[in-house]
Amino acid sequence: MTKRTLTSVVLLLGAAFLLGAGTNHFRSPSLPLFKAMPTLFPGEISLDGAFLHYRRKDAVFWDVRTPEAYREAHLPGALGPNEVPSEGRMTIVYCSGRLCPKATEKAEDLRELGYQDVWVLPDGIQGWHGAGHLLQSGDE
Amino acid sequence: MIALRLFLGLVFVVSSWTKIRYPRIFAEALLAYQVLPESLVTVVAVTLPWLELLAGLAMLFGYRYRGSAVVLGGLSLLFALVLSSAVWKGLDISCGCFVGVEWMKVKWWHIVANLVFFGLAGAVFFRGPGRWALEKSPAPNSHTPHP
């Protein structure tokens, strides 16, 4: 391998690290580098926490997956993707699971609209189902 | 050669984009592979997508093509190894190749695809970038003969 090739590789690696660490620094929330990733970030709620609010019936759950996925199964009483939660109540937004960015995006949209009490359930419907909690199917 | 170079560059640029946008989701996908220490997952999750983007762009434009071929070839080989370990362990996980595309589970053909990318990077490295590149491949026998 020539010196120029090696220089290119080192430059690419260095630039990628600087850009990655730099953009991460200005991102909210940023990922903690060289540390284990937290299970929950600010604005997120645990499965246990969400279940507690489900039992108390003091929160609205909003399923933001596709209408087909919603029809197949959703958290009991959850709003569908084509509905919009009303302001003033605690809203818990979820999608399929930890690899789905949609819930975070929709929660951000609600916060920008002025909703105060908005939370994301990062474990999503997969986590809910995996924990043995009930699901519901159909349009309501 | 130009088609191979553009294809390889484009694959990595496209796949980097959602990973840059959603580093946390990409970190979750990396965690699922169970190959990295947890303390390294986040730094890899924020760095690797930029490496894919920069090397992919360098490949697309044919600039420092040998360096970008080494990086993209190395990444492809690394991905093939990590995917193989997931298939070997029988993990039913999303491949994380394109963040947000959860249905794309780890399958053996992902390993084959990455080996093909490795081959493409090797071809660009040894045969040059082809036409429409910012950097030309050195002409054969262009070295200065020793007196």
Task: Summarize the SSE layout with pairings.
The complex is a heterodimer of chains A (140) and B (147).
Chain A: H1 3-26, H2 47-56, E1 59-63, H3 67-72, E2 90-94, H4 102-112, E3 118-120, H5 124-130
Parallel strand pairs in A: 1-2, 2-3
Chain B: H1 2-21, H2 23-33, H3 38-61, H4 65-89, H5 108-127
Helix pairs in contact in B: 1-2, 1-3, 2-3, 3-4, 4-5
List keywords for this structure.
heterodimer; A: 140 residues; mainly alpha; 3-stranded parallel sheet; 5 helices; 41% helix; 9% strand; B: 147 residues; 68% helix; globular; disordered C terminus
Task: Describe, in plain words, how this protein is organized in 3D.
The complex is a heterodimer of chains A (140) and B (147). With 140 residues, chain A is mainly α. Chain A has helices at residues 3-26, 47-56, 67-72, 102-112, 124-130; strands at residues 59-63, 90-94, 118-120. In chain A, strands 1-2-3 form a three-stranded parallel sheet, with helices on both faces. In chain A, helix 4 (102-112) links the parallel strand 2 (90-94) and strand 3. Chain A starts with a helix and ends in a 10-residue tail after the last helix. Chain B has 147 residues and is mainly alpha-helical. The model of chain B is unreliable at 142-147 (pLDDT under 50). The longest helix of chain B has 25 residues, at 65-89. Chain B contains five helices and no strands. In chain B, 68% of the residues lie in helices and 0% in strands. At the A-B interface, helix 1 of A face helix 1, helix 2, helix 3 and helix 4 of B.
